[in-house]
Design a protein that fits this description.
Layout (H helix, E strand, L loop, with lengths): L2 H24 L2 H4 L3 H4 L11 H18 L10 E2 L2 E3 L2 H7 L7 E4 L3 E10 L2 E10 L12 H12 L2 H4 L7 E5 L4 E5 L5 E2 H4 L7 H20 L2 E2 L8 E3 L5 E3 L6 E2 L7 E2 L15 E2 L2 H16 L12
Parallel strand pairs: 2-6
Antiparallel strand pairs: 1-2, 3-4, 4-5, 5-7, 6-7, 8-10, 9-12, 10-11, 13-14
Helix pairs in contact: 1-6, 9-10
Organism: Nicotiana tabacum (Common tobacco)
Protein name: Cold-responsive protein kinase 1-like isoform X2
Length: 306
């Protein structure tokens, strides 16, 4: 690596360290206490809550939302490898976050259709959110870090031009954690996984591209955790683009044990014992490969004989 490349990497790392420190300083409360977390939730009330508990919780929620309404997110202009930070108002110009724009849920939030407008030019976009919708769960606390890890990867020019990853266009951490991808949504692998007309050649092409992507990420010492069929977009030529990961960890090694802070999606057996390694990604790939070959969806916790 040249001196110029090393300096660029240090500047890029420093920028993300600043974002991480800000998010750690703010914690998740400014993101939790936003009115849309109740309004956009399909079922905001925890099933174990009594009426009194639910009403009391909701009153406290609105009180805190009012408090955080004036919270200063201290946005600063930042461009990393041509990827810009955008404000919440700019994000709302891209998508309205309404049910009509919703594509599907992800492992940590949702996917929406949007539109990028640059002058007279308009083109389709995909907006991904890291959500804090009611009712809250323990996994919400890690979404700040997961957001930073994914944005750090996608602002790397090599990743942002990788043929099997979505192309990041903008990212936002004002009020919502969100990323805007300069891509048109097509369909996901889970839509065709069980279809008879999704033939052997197509299945092998998907498996090969996913294997190449995981190998490339591991070379960059990045572990991704759960990758499932609903996280993989495919186009008409059956080229894949992965847009969501279960547990994202930067800067790990082959023999590194990654702390298990929460469980998302499918996991390798060792994860249930409290440890995760880069080899856990290989296990998850094997599950998806079995589904591609057999044209079956497996739940390995319910069917351990597989």
């Amino acid at each position: 690596m040249t001196d110029v490349q090393m300096r660029d990497e240090e500047e890029k790392s420093g920028g993300f360290e600043m974002i991480r420190k800000k998010l750690e300083e703010w914690d998740i409360l400014p993101y939790q206490y936003q009115i849309f977390n109740k309004e956009e939730s399909p079922n905001w009330r925890h099933p174990l809550f009594t009426d009194r508990t639910a009403n009391g919780m909701l009153a406290f929620f609105y009180e805190q939302c009012n408090y955080y309404q004036s919270f200063k997110f201290s946005l600063e202009p930042m461009i990393v490898d041509e990827v810009k930070l955008c404000s919440y108002s700019e994000l709302q110009d891209i998508t309205d976050f309404k049910a009509e724009s919703l594509i599907q849920k992800t492992l940590s939030g949702r996917l929406f259709r949007g539109t990028i407008g640059e002058g007279s030019e308009k083109r389709p976009a995909i907006v991904k959110t890291w959500d804090f919708l009611l009712p809250w769960g323990d996994e919400h606390a890690q979404r700040l870090h997961k957001f930073c890890d994914e944005i750090e990867l996608f602002t790397d020019e090599r990743a942002n031009t990788h043929p099997n990853l979505l192309k990041l266009y903008r990212y936002c951490y004002e009020m919502r954690l969100a990323a805007v991808y300069d891509e048109k949504f097509t369909r996901v692998l889970s839509d065709v996984l069980l279809a008879d007309d999704f033939g052997w050649d197509d299945r092998i092409k998907v498996a090969t591209q996913l294997a190449d992507l995981l190998a490339w990420l591991h070379e960059k010492i990045v572990a991704v955790g759960s990758v499932i069929a609903s996280c993989i977009m495919i186009d008409e030529e059956v080229n894949i683009k992965v847009f969501d990961f279960g547990h994202f960890s930067n800067h790990v090694s082959d023999d590194c044990k990654i702390p298990v802070k929460y469980l998302v999606g499918r996991e390798a057996p060792e994860v249930w014992a409290g440890k995760r390694t880069m080899k856990s990604d290989v296990y998850i790939f094997g599950l998806l490969l079995l589904e591609l070959i057999s044209k079956k969806k497996f739940n390995f916790r319910k069917n351990p004989e597989y």
